[in-house]
Amino acid sequence: MSAVRLRFREATSLPVDASPLLPRALAGRSAAELAALPLRVGNRVVPLGELAEIEPGDADTLVIEASFKGLDRLGRGMAGGRLEIYGDVGAYLGQEMRDGRIELFGSAGPFAAAGMAGGILHVTARAGDHLGGALPGDSHGMTGGAVLVGGDAGKRVGDRMRRGLIAVAGRLGDFPASRLIGGTIIGLEGCGREPGHAMRRGTLLLGRAPSRLPVTFADNGTHTFPWLSLLARHLATLTPAIALPGDRATRWTGCASTGGKGEILVMA
């Protein structure tokens, strides 16, 4: 069985709604059917054949080459299969994803994994602002699944996240875990300003101490946490594996303004 392959000829000057490009939706279609697939570019509808070179296939794997920052909503609502993307992409990568795997060999724009409920999203380079966060007007962000980032991430990672795992090998931007409802966020290289702003529950795990923690968090001391060993085992099963430096951490509880049931752990 062979994968469906698309190679974009050039970057467009207007954003492209790439949400129809899903592995299972394109598998088994003829070259003519794929070429006629309509995509919205700005306020126009353009057939896929005018934008990309097409190689049909019968597997639920879609390979996209020469992607660019104007490609928005790739993998939106994805319910299975595998999506491989080579190059940078725009906003909303993996929005409302429910199952399957997305591999991005490049950087993602804002709101990647917004509303994600399942599956695995892997970004090899950088992720933009609001990774796993809530879209404007939504009551919650990510509700399940796992997001793995090889580089840094932008501001407000996990804003209003309810469940799931976000593991960033690099540094988180300002306001990570803001308004966090639940789930686990990891930043191995630390974070920017105001971690845990209005955090309700959940865990923010940092490999390096931030320059300052909000006054709404209380120092609980440094301890050994056996559950960190369980988390490390789980991370070791993911691809790529992410290693935690140990099972000892300094624990801060807060945010006091929202009940104080969340925690920030700084690895000792």
Automatic annotation (TrEMBL):
Keywords: Oxidoreductase. The keyword GTP-binding does not apply. Transmembrane segments: none annotated. Its EC number is 1.2.7.12. It comes from the Bacteria. One of its GO terms (molecular function) is formylmethanofuran dehydrogenase activity. The keyword Oxidoreductase applies. InterPro entries: Formylmethanofuran_DH_suC, Glu_synth_asu_C_sf. It is an enzyme of class 1 (oxidoreductase). NCBIfam families: one_C_dehyd_C. This is Formylmethanofuran dehydrogenase subunit C.
